[in-house]
């Protein structure tokens, strides 16, 4: 039986507390960075930010193809109504998982392209979307003003341009959040 004196026990307890504190601070920083990205993007779209349903961990795997074991932390919302492709997902990937998560989100984007092929406004928004990587953070956004009144090819061209401009708003916000990180 090993006997430890009070100083040794106190020293071990302080080391455990310090390690725990550092881990909590790192997790807070990650969540704060994801939340800041979400808040900045959401604010930049104002009333045209449509996602409002939280994406649960099981949904990350079942719908988006991202096993929760690959995720260190995340924030995600999707549209309440399935007639809108709108989604915001920000993920801090576990070590070595950035590429897998990116590929899963790209595959989901391809699924959305097929799903909204008969919806010109939805398809324009999805086509304007991309997966973005900032170090170990991966983002996927389909956001912008909805429009269900596209009739002519000229209107479609104008809507595609608006969708690309709308996508650029979120990209700019992510770049602002992650510059210098």
Number of domains: 1
The percent range for strand residues is 5-15%
Number of helices: 5
Order of helices and strands: HEHEEHHEEH
General shape: elongated
Kindly report the spatial arrangement of strands forming the biggest sheet: 1-2-3-5-4
Determine the fraction of residues in helical runs and give it as a percent range.
40-55%
Terminal CA distance: 49 Å
Mean pLDDT: 83
| Uncertain segments | 18-27
Number of strands: 5
Radius of gyration: 21 Å
Structural account:
The protein is an alpha+beta fold and 181 residues long. The protein has one domain (36-178). It contains five helices and five strands; from the N terminus they run H-E-H-E-E-H-H-E-E-H. The protein has helices spanning 6-45, 57-62, 98-115, 120-127, 153-178, and strands at residues 53-54, 71-78, 87-93, 131-134, 137-142. A five-stranded antiparallel beta sheet has the order 1-2-3-5-4, sandwiched between helices. Helix 1 runs antiparallel to helix 5 (153-178) and helix 4 (120-127) runs parallel beside helix 5 (153-178). The N and C termini lie far apart (49 Å). Residues 18-27 have low confidence and may be disordered.
């Amino acid at each position: 039986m090993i006997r430890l004196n009070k100083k040794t026990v106190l020293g071990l307890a302080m080391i455990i507390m310090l390690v725990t504190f550092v881990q909590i601070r790192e997790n807070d920083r990650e969540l704060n960075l994801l939340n800041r990205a979400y808040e900045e993007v959401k604010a930049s779209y104002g009333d045209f930010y449509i996602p409002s349903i939280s994406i649960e961990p099981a949904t990350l795997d079942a719908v988006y193809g991202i096993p929760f074991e690959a995720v260190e932390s995340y924030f995600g919302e999707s549209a309440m109504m399935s007639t809108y492709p709108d989604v915001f997902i920000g993920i801090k990937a576990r070590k070595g998982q950035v590429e897998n998560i990116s590929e899963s989100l790209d595959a989901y984007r391809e699924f959305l392209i097929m799903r909204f092929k008969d919806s010109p406004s939805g398809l324009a928004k999805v086509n304007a979307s991309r997966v973005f990587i900032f170090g170990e953070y991966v983002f996927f956004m389909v956001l912008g003003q909805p429009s269900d009144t596209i009739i002519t090819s000229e209107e479609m061209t104008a809507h595609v341009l608006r969708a690309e401009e709308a996508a650029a708003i979120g990209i700019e916000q992510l770049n602002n959040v992650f510059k210098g990180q």
